[in-house]
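Collaborator request, handled under Task 6.
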Amino acid sequence: MLEILKKRWFLISLAVLIPGGLAIGSQFTASQLESVKAFFHPRVVIAVVLLLMAFSLDSRQLKDSFRSPGPVLWASAVNYALIPLFGLMLMPLQRPADFQFGLMIVAAVPCTMAAASVWTRRAGGNDAVSLWVTIATNGSCFLVTPFWLNMKTARVAQLDVREMIFRLLLVVLLPTLAGQAIRLLRVARKLAVRHKASIGATAQACMLTIVFGAACEAGTRLNGMGDRPSLLAVVIVWGSCIAIHLAAMGIGMAGGRLFGFSRRDIVAVAFAGSQKTLPIAVLLATDETMFGNPDLLGSGRGVPFAVFPILMYHTSQMFIDTVIADRLAENARPAEAAVEPTA
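C-alpha cells returned to the collaborator:
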C-alpha cells in the first residue's frame, strides 16, 4: 500500500480533490468563492512552480535546446496549430453551445506553464525543451489565442494585450530567470542537484492547488443552474478532450521520430505539444469581458458551462500523462543500463 501511495500519490490526490472541490464549491456563493481563490491564486502558484523548476534545471540544457530549436518548433506547432484545428473539427459535435465554446477555448490556449516540464522530467525527457515551449506559446498567446477563437466564434476575444504581456513576464519569465539566478550560487546548485526529485514533487503538489481551485469554481457555477447539460453531452465532450490530447501526443512523437530527434526530445515534444494551460483558459471562459459575458449569445444566459470542457481536458491530461510518463520512465531505465559502461 505504501508503495502504491508513493508512486500514485498524485493521481490519488486528483481523485480526491476534484470531486471534493466540486462538492465544496457547490456550497459557495460567488463572494465566498473569491475568498477561497485568494488562497489558491493561479498566478502566484504558477510563479512558485516555475521558480522551483527553473532552480532545479541545468541551464546548459536551455542553451543546447536554443541552439537546436527543432523540437521546440515542432512541439509549438502541434500545440498551437494542430490542436486548434482538431478543436474546430469537433466543435459541431458538442451540445450545448457552452461545450462548443469551452472546447475551442482549451484548444486555443498555450502550453501548460509548469506541468509540461514536470511530466517531461518525470518521464526522463529534456525538460529544457518543454520549458522553451512554455515560454514561446505563452509569450505569443495574446496574438494566437484570439486568432483561433475568432475564426470559429466570429468574435474577437477582447484581451488586454498590455496586461497579458505584463502577466506573462511576471508569471513565466521572471520566476524562470530568478530560479536560474539562484542556481548560480554554488551551495544552491548542489542543493538543486541533491534534491531534484523532491523539488519536482513539491511542484506537483503546488499544481494540485490550481486543480482544486478550478474544481471549486466549477462547483459554484454548477450550483443553481436549472438547464444542465445531458450525460451524453458530457460523455461526448470529455471523449473529445481525451481524443485531442492523445492525437496531439501521438502525432508529436511520430513527427519527432521522423525528424530524427533524440528520445529525450521526443518525450518533451509529447508532453509540451499536447498539454494545455488551465488558468488562461478559465480566465477566457469566466471573465465578464470575454466568454463570461451574460449577453454573449444575446440570451442573457451566457455560456456558464464553458469552463467544464476546460476542467475535463486538464484533468484528463494529468491522469493520462502521469501513467504515460511512468511507463516511459520505466522503459528508459533498461536502455540506460544497457549503455552504461562497465568498470
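The cover message to the collaborator said: "Residues 307-339 form the longest helix (33 residues). The CA atoms of residues 103 and 309 lie 6 Å apart. Please let us know whether this matches your experimental observations."
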